[in-house]
Amino acid sequence: MELEPAPQTFRPILDRRRHIPEPPPVRLLTLEDASLPAAAGLERQLDAFYVGLLGFERPAGSEWPVYRAENFSVTFDVLEPPVQRDDYRALGVEVPSLPDLEEKLIKSETEYTRQRGLLPGEERIVLLDPAGNWLEIVDRRGVR
Questions:
Q1: Does the model's pTM come out above 0.70?
Q2: CATH code of the domain covering residue 121
Q3: Is 131 within a domain?
Q4: Short-list 101, 139, 103, 142, CA closest to 122
Q5: CA angle, 68 as apex, 64 and 70 as ends, to 5°?
Q6: Which domain holds residue 52?
Q7: Looking at 39-43, 65-69, 79-83, 104-108, which range is the least confident one?
Q8: Alpha-carbon dihedral of residues 79, 24, 95, 112, nearest 10 degrees?
Q9: 72: three-class secondary structure by DSSP
């Protein structure tokens, strides 16, 4: 079996449409943008945690610590210590792979707790971010 020679040379068409970047691989399990308190002076630790560890994006030129997920954003209200909290509910975060995140947490020596749910295969990681906010991280499940 042989291929027939092409009748003319192929020239790709340049796509002049504006490039839209891929969204971050994480999602927030909320109904709107989340706002969390943080003590002043934790900006670098928050960047390392949310961008480096979890995979959020930090928009360029933002004055406050803001981290963008695929669907919503997390905004931190920078306050002078001691920080007063209204509640201690965990912020839900969905990551592409829980085992990959667990490996990163072990390498960075970050404390976490792995919890099992009521249903088979339901697992989550619960931990505190550098500002002392609770996060409940689950694995992204595709439709099968």
A1: yes
A2: 3.10.180.10
A3: yes
A4: 139
A5: 170
A6: 27-139
A7: 79-83
A8: -30
A9: coil
